[in-house]
Structures are given as C-alpha cells and as structure tokens.
Design goal:
The protein is mainly alpha-helical and 147 residues long. The protein folds into two domains: 60 residues, no CATH class; 50 residues. The chain is 52% helix and 3% strand. It contains three helices and two strands; from the N terminus they run H-H-E-E-H. A hairpin with a 5-residue loop joins strand 1 and strand 2. The longest helix is centred in the N-terminal third of the chain and has 34 residues. The chain is elongated. It starts with 22 loop residues before the first helix and ends in a 19-residue tail after the last helix.
C-alpha cells in the first residue's frame, strides 16, 4: 500500500496509513508521558521561583541582623536565651528533650494517618462501589433439598 503525505503534515513528515500504535496505547502512554513532562515543567518553574526568592531575600528583612547576632548555624537547635547584658538566662534545650519532641511528633502523625486510613478506607470503598437497588441480596437460608 502506498503512503501519501497529508497536506498539513508535510512539514512534520506525517504520512497517512495504519497507526503505529493503537489509540488505547496512545491514550495511556501519551497520558503518562504528558504527566512526566508536566512534572518536569513544574519542577523547572519551582526551581526558577525559588532562585528568584533567594535572590530577593537578602534585600528583604533583617537577615544580616540575624547573622550578626546568632552566627551562621546549620542547625535548628535554639540558642541559649540571654538578657540585654549577654548573661545566659535559660541555657537552652537538652538534646534528649528535642529528640523526644520530634519522635513523639512523628509517632502522633503515624497514629493520626493510620487511623484516618483505617476508618475512612472502608467508607470510601462503600462510596465508590455502591450496590444497585435492583439486585437481590442472597438469602441467608440454605437451599431446600430435593426429595
């Protein structure tokens, strides 16, 4: 069978003929590829937005004040509280207290989301697979034995 060039597809090199892939494969794979490219575009957009924010941050706020008074820290552990003369008022939080707080916070999240999943999972299944009213429920009584 001779393939003919489509009038609008000359520049794109499109030819008329049998499909290379079926419409089902095109729909499923095409959707997946589209989602991947959309994710890449959103990731690039987010990276550009974060870059712009990072460029603008030093001009906004009092970051130089924070760095001058508290130094460059690569930790989120709070520093000791001092009064106006620089005397330590509260020495800070012990590492054990911070660990316990973080551990119990994660444990609380696990319990919360497990409970939500276990309670609402069966309810969602009921909602997504409702029984039709015209179907007859099977009888609980045994079938009669023929004589």
């Amino acid at each position: 069978m001779e393939k003919k060039l489509l009038p609008r597809g000359v520049l794109a090199g499109a030819v008329a003929g049998p499909d290379l892939f079926s419409r089902t494969i095109q729909a499923n794979v095409g959707t997946g590829v589209g989602i991947v490219f959309f994710g890449m575009a959103m990731g690039a957009l987010l990276a550009v937005a974060i870059g712009i924010v990072m460029l603008l941050l030093p001009q906004m706020g009092h970051l130089s004040y924070n760095e001058a008074n508290f130094g460059k820290h690569a930790t989120e552990t709070p520093l000791p509280l001092t009064d106006s003369q620089g005397n330590v008022v509260y020495p800070g939080f012990p590492a054990d207290v911070l660990f316990d707080f973080r551990f119990y916070s994660v444990a609380a999240q696990l319990v919360l989301w497990a409970a939500i999943g276990l309670v609402f999972g069966p309810l969602a299944e009921r909602l997504l697979r409702p029984t039709r009213p015209d179907t007859v429920a099977p009888s609980q009584e045994p079938d009669p034995v023929p004589a």
